[in-house]
Amino acid sequence: MDSIDREIYQAAIKGDRDAFEMIIRASSRTLFAIAYGVLQDRAEAEDVVQDAFVKAWKSRWRVREPEKFPAWLATIARHRARDVARSRRTAPLGGELDHALDPSIANQHEQERASDVNGRVHAALAALPEAHRVAVTLRYIDALDYATIERTLGLTNGALRGILGRALQTMRRRLQPALASLD
Amino acid sequence: MPAIHDEIEPWLAAAVHDQLSPEEHVTFRAHLATCESCRALHEEELTMSKMIESTLEEAKPDLAFEQRIVSGFRKRLPYRGGLASLLVGLFRLRATQITAAAAVMLTLVQVGKVVTRENAGEREKMQGASELGIRDERDRLLRGPQDSASLANSSKATEGKASSPQSESLADSARTVAEPRTAAAPLKSEAEPLVAREQTEPAESLPAPAPEFAEERPEDGADRMTTMESSVAASIEDAPPPPAADANRKLIRNAQVELEIAKFDEAVQKITSFATGQRGYVATSSSAKQENGKLRGEVVVKVLPDTLDTFLLQLRGLGEVKNQTLGTQDVTKQYFDTDSRLNNARVMEQRLIDILKTKTGKVSDLLEVEKELGRVRQQIEQMQGELKFMDAQVQFATVTISLAEKDMNLPAAFLLKRTAHLALYSTDVEKTFAEVKTVIEGAKAQLSSSTLDRDSTGEATARLVLLIAPEEADTLIVRIKGMGRVQNYTDQTDRVAQGGTGMAENAKVERDKVELSITISRNEEEPALQTTSLRILASAVSDKVARLKENAAGAGAEIRSSSFSRDPDGQEIANLTLRVPLKNYAPLLSSFDQLGKVKDVSVQRADRRGTINEETAPADISIQVYSQPNIVSDETGLFATIRHTLGQGFSALMWSLRMIGVAIAFLAPWVVAIGLIAWVVASISRARAARRAKREVAE
How many helices (H) and strands (E) does chain A have? Predict the structure, then answer.
């Protein structure tokens, strides 16, 4: 992290709203990628990003070292996203309720989606463990390099490579038919 | 490359994501070249990665995403609005900022003043000043008429010699000066009596011209004698228009001035020239020389009343005015009373003379008339004298000037006073006493007192006090010292300033006679071989002292002095000095341990020449037995203890409260000021941030 970033994070921690808004602009896509990785829903992810920044602003004083600010933001976003995911699972409402309760409809829906390539990719993604999924979305949505992802998720280089390797391997196996058909 | 092959997945992913380092890339490529299955996997991975990429492309947030997030953030955490934003807006103005800063400073100063109670003093001062102003005003009002009157008086005084137009103009000016004053005077109640007097005075003062008429027309005297009113009426008819009331005022002015001057004679000379310059004269002058050569004196100067003020101003130039008083005595009533009585007496005199002239009646009656005439004439003379005296006093103002040269109090000389005390041991006191006396006879010395006492044990003690001429003192003292064994000798010289205090550089120093007091005794004070001093901390000091004395008596010790004292706080201190034979020293000292805690023991041994009997050689012990002061008073009993404990607790509480108050008084203004400043700064910075944000949104 260079000194300018450091200063911006420091200022934000001390309550400089301008600095914090700069950080919002700079890191909202990363947080979105994380939230999307957890939730796989754009609207929900966006809400999560929104919530995460509000929460971060309110509890910014908890961060002692500016270096850890990005990772801290990521953690907040991830937790928030998990909360949303959990509430979606435990307290489904309205149409979603039917949707969730009726496996036939869900299956049908899934199959419909799976019929095209995008749907299949989504399904494959959904089948991944959360940690893997988040790594994948960070890579593909925010196009971050490995070093940044490591920093954001608090991982070592080897761990990230392992995670992505396994994630892509799993997805490859799932997408085997599609890949075959493409060939 | 079995290693890569076995864990190809991370390599594949990293390769697809182009995150291999150059070396890794080479290694990976090399493996792919050799391993076909891995190559196939790599191909698959590339295809899939593109699939994922294209799929997630849809999921990527749109371009307005960041702005949406930021505005959402602002919406959810808005800047404070309402009154706060209004204030913030206000504080954005530079003028408001400066005003606020000034207000903060002012508040700080005011609070500080309240804390230090400085303003109270100031208010008092202001009040004092205003009172002074009022007093000045009053003085001016009071003095006004007098001043004008004195002017008028002076004009009247000069009337005789000076030409009338001048005096009239003077009187006129006096009147014009006086008129506005009388108009203004009723404003002040203090001035009212004066005005009243002024108004009634014409009636009194009008008889003034009467004497002339009486003298001119003695035959009319009888008629005029009848009543005052008639004379007034007559004088109104006959006399020229009466001068203004003020012009007739008889005022005696005098002043006392105390001056400190450099040279007396010069000052007197100047005063004389000033006086003659003001058509005055020096009435008396006296001077006295002080011990230190400085002159002090008094000069009485008579000057014309209207030049008094100028004269006083001139005096100020002479030196430092230490004191000045100005007085005015209004003798108008007295003067005219005397004057009218004089008139009556003159009329009486004339009538008596007439009776004598006609020479009718018996001789005894005539004698009676003569007698009466004599009495009346005496009265007339007396009254004339009084009037003359008053005239003289009114005509001239008296200025009494006390002059003192500077540094009046410097000492004139210093005296070196030497006093010596000599204690002699002699086997034959009387013989030595006589010897000393004979020595004195041959020297420039004088015996101021001598006593020879013999106490009940037959021991003789002689005391002599000598006054010796300073030049012979040393030889004489040496000679007297040789007459016995010197037990003690002290010599002290004092420098005594005479006729003042302080340091005078050129004052001379004199040597006074040397005072020598000699004590001759046989009561030999054998110096102690060992001197010990110690302190014993004990409770119940008096008991302990009694026990100590018992112990001492048991050890054959002589108690030389003993004292006991008790402080108001209950601390008891007893001081004892003992002399004990050395053989009993150690046991006695060890017995002290039973009495209390022995502290600060110091032992000094003075070995000297000659044979010393270790057994009987004396040892001095000085002991201080003391107790701790009571924390609570020495009153005993449960209630007293409770009362005192409560009392002390309460006073401690009050003290701490006071201290807290002081601390708050010191700190509060600063806390308030710093808080205010911090708040202002925060508000300003927030306002700036809001402005910037708005600008950004606008852009």
Answer: 11, 0
